[in-house]
Amino acid sequence: MIRSYALTLSALSLRAWKVLFATFTDIGPMDRYRIIAWLGWGLNLIIAEIIIYNQIKRRKLKASVA
């Protein structure tokens, strides 16, 4: 569910990155879109995987203590 949520939010991330890149860079529109598309999916998935990893680690630690 966390991965699904992260990928669903990629549409919002895409728009946020688009504003930042349009404001602060001089990259051409097609190149900018390619970079932003990868950032929107990739960064969201990396954050989701970190959250999942931390949850699994916490569960294992809790199970070993109990």
Give the number of domains.
Answer: 1
Rg on CA atoms, Å:
16 Å
Question: What's the total helix number?
Answer: 3
- Strand count, sense and closure of the main sheet? none
* Multimerization state: single chain
> What is the helix fraction of residues, given as a range?
over 70%
Shape: elongated
Structural class: mainly alpha
Question: Any low-confidence stretches, pLDDT <50, length ≥5?
Answer: none
H-E string: HHH
What percentage of the residues does DSSP assign to strands (E)? under 5%
Outline the structure in words.
This protein is an all-alpha fold. The chain has one domain. It is 89% helix and 0% strand. It contains three helices and no strands. It has helices at 2-8, 10-24, 29-65. α2 (10-24) crosses α3. The longest helix is centred in the C-terminal third of the chain and has 37 residues, at 29-65. The two termini are 27 Å apart. The mean pLDDT is 92.
Task: Give the tags.
3 helices, 66 residues, mainly alpha
Please give a quick description of this structure.
Helix content is 89%, strand content 0%.
List the helices and strands and how they pair.
Elements: H1 2-8, H2 10-24, H3 29-65
